[in-house]
Amino acid sequence: MGFISRFIVDFAYFLNTLESYQHVKRFFYDILENDKYQYKKYFDILMISLIFVSVAILIAEVKSNVPKDIELFNTYVISIIFFIEYLFRFWISSSITEIIVNSSEHAFMLGREFSLSKTFFKIIQVKLNFIFSVKAIIDLLAILPFFHELRLLRLFVLFRVFKLFRYTNSFKIFTSVLSTKKFEFFILLMFASIVISVSSILIYVMEANNPDSPVNTLFEAVYWSIVTISTVGYGDITPITIEGRVVAMFVITAGIGVLAFTTSIVVSALTEKLDEIKEVRTIEDIRKLKQFYLICGYESVAKEVAKKLQNARNNVIVLDEEPFRIENAKRDGLVALNYDPGLTESYKKIGIDLKTQVKAILCLRESDVENVYTTLTVRSLNKEINIISLLMDDINRKKLEFAGVSEILYPKGLVGLISKELIGRPVAFEVIHALRNDYYGVAIEEILIDVRMSENIVFVTELHNSKFRVILLGIYKKEKKRFLFNPIDSTLLQSGDYLLVIGNSIFIREFEKYLHKKMKV
Predict the structure, then answer these.
(1) Sign (positive or negative) of CA dihedral 342, 348, 351, 352
(2) Do the beta carbons of residue 363 and residue 375 sit within 8 Å?
(3) Does some domain include residue 283?
(4) Nearest 5°: phi and psi at 475?
(5) How far apart (Å, rounded) are the C-alpha atoms in residues 373 and 343?
(6) For a tag site, which of 239, 262, 346, 393 has the least CB within 10 Å?
(7) Beta partners for 425?
(8) Are 400 and 372 within 8 A, CB to CB?
(9) Across 388-397, average pLDDT
């Protein structure tokens, strides 16, 4: 390897490993291309504003004199901003250093001599792909008004409008949907081009020799054909001969077919991508939420938990890999996504911040294996997030604890505790069953005693639940894993305990508000 080649490869390695350089490049990539980046929307708003300002100035210049400062701003400042943006997009479109490094390593592994010329050709090819892409061409045309001495180039300000496709997700989604029908649009374009070409020549041949005909040039014939096939029909040019009118009938019929074909293509594309569009919109709405509970799996227990959380005015998101369970969640008024909660790709697609946005992850699948797998996946992404998991078989408790579950819910254990107290009392069981089903507006609820609440409310007597016509059925002591029915007034309340209360749903909510207000005092 020659000195120049060695120097270029070493320099590429240096830049590829230079943290500050990669950090800067990553920043510009995020601000220009990464829709998940929190500050990108402000950049998009700025660029959209500049586009509308430049178009407004162009319109104002038609019949009035625009102040010199505003004209200079439109001609130079906005154009320079767009030019700088174009250069940054050119830079981040591909990594030259990465191409050089990969080529060098590939040559080394195969025992070949590193070819600087071939690598240089690869770089040019990659960059030319960007330059000749549709979006890059629009960006370049938007810069042309900088050369304002040529008045015609000032009209290229209008190309700045097409840059809106870069900055609005709705346009991006629409263009991506239409791009799936490239072949159909190509066939449509070919058909329309043939009809316009044939009809233009025919109408020119039929009408041009008639001195009274408005069709005197081939350009006028083409203009008439396009206006007619689009079914616009301005009426400024109309055939006067019988032959010309026959051609017009043919063109009008073909125009109806073209419009029908175009409409069917767009509608079919939108129909095929409708679920994907809804999913993208749902993900965008989820990213805007400040905090929410994430329920993994939507089965019987999850339904009850989601209902309680919704009644408490909490945001709830459901993930499940089974489409029918997702449909059930949506019918219950929940935001649900058909993603496997056991895959890291699911959380990356959603793009949420597990540390700040998610209050807790609830693994409520009625399968311990699925809950363990989900817990391991979440823990690989975040070590501190609160994970609450359902336990179906006590033999799997150690597995859930080892996976990193913060708290385990074991329904059979609670049923056992209640059964001990109510053994031989069938009426009591019926009462509990009725309460759990919100019988006549009466409900049984669990209220968690958190750290701050335990500092302000020490004993049961300080709850004052009777003032709210709420009955304290019992307390579940987390540390002792024991349920105390009808506790005495001197029972000590500790952080992590659960109050099991009975009463009207409205009174229970008022009681909860009172506890939280007392906590803040």
Answers:
(1) positive
(2) yes
(3) no
(4) -130, 130
(5) 9
(6) 393
(7) none
(8) yes
(9) 85
